[in-house]
Structures are given as C-alpha cells and as structure tokens.
Amino acid sequence: MKKFKFTIHGNIYEVEIQGFEDNIAKVEVNGTPYDVEIHEDLKMTKTPTLVRAEPPQPKGKETRIPKIPSKTTNLTVKAPLPGTIISVLIKDGEKVTMGQKLLTMEAMKMENNVLAEKDGTIKAVHVKPGDTVLQNDVLVEIA
Questions:
Q1: pLDDT, block means (10 residues), the chain with 143 residues
Q2: Is residue 77 classed as helix, strand or coil in its secondary structure?
Q3: Which of 34, 55, 58, 110 would bridge 62 by S-S if both were Cys, CB 3.0 to 4.6 A apart?
Q4: What is the predicted pLDDT for the residue at 36?
Q5: Class for domain 75-142, per CATH?
C-alpha cells in the first residue's frame, strides 16, 4: 500500500503499510510482518496556525506620525484604467467641487465618470474627446 523509510537511533527501517482493519494496522518492517494496534486517531489540521509577535509599544514622541506639509496644493486626476476619452465637461480656469463629474471615458467597454477629488480651480486639462489614455496618465490638474 504505502512505503516509508524511518531512521530511529541511526537505524534505517523500511516500513510498508499493507492495510487497516478496525483499529489494527498490518505493517511490514524490514520484511517482518506485524499487527499494530492503533489506540488513538490523531487528526492534524491542514490549516497552519499563524503566530505573530506583539508589536512594540510606541515610546514618547513616537506616538504620533508627523504630518509633512505638501509643497504643492495641485491635485492631478489620473486615468483609473486604459481607455478612450468620450467627453470633457470642464475647461481651464473653471471652479469645481468635490464629486463633480469632470469627464467621461470608455474603458473595458463601459463608460466611466471621472470625478473631482477636491474643491478647486481647473489648472489644466490634458485630454480632449477621442484621446486614448493609459492607466495613471494625467487627465486634469486641479489647483
């Protein structure tokens, strides 16, 4: 049935499990047959147990993450997916509010609306209807 090699105290044993009957296993060790009584069925879980160390507690000044002021207040709106620009609903200098629809693009055979992520003024529109864009291409800059 199944063959195994065991090394016990430097001695190699070839063990062949020939079959099970109730709680008796018929095995052959180095050519000698044995009937082995099984007392308890050990069930091993297939899911490993994840053990993680506790993270160290912050000390003193480490309790806060310092905010680094941004050098630029401009926000670039980037293409979420590769696609084609269908319509541009804004122009340079126009004021927009957060959530306002800036343009529509076709990506993966679906129309997707690109929205403003903050209030501001349109600094530059880098696309026009019919343009093909790749993912993360800059579409609009908002100041």
A1: 84 86 85 84 71 76 61 80 93 92 92 91 93 92 90
A2: strand
A3: 58
A4: 85
A5: mainly beta
DSSP string, 25-54: EEEEETTEEEEEE--------SSPPP--PP
Q: Which two tokens stand for residue 124?
A: 């530059």
Pair of tokens at residue 11? 């001695």
Q: Are residues 117 and 139 in contact, defined by beta-carbon separation less than 8 angstroms?
A: no
pTM score, two decimals? 0.49
CA 93, 98, 103, 109: dihedral to nearest 10 degrees?
A: 170
Q: Which residue has the tokens 């696609």?
A: 83
| Beta bridge partners of residue 37, listed in sequence order | 24
The type of residue at 59 is K
Give pLDDT, residue 11: 87
φ/ψ of residue 50, rounded to 5? -90, 125
Cα distances (Å, whole numbers) of residue 93 to 70, 73, 117: 22, 16, 17
Which of 75, 80, 88, 48 has its CA nearest to residue 142?
75
Which residue is it, tokens 């199944």?
Answer: 2
Token pair listed for 67: 């905010």
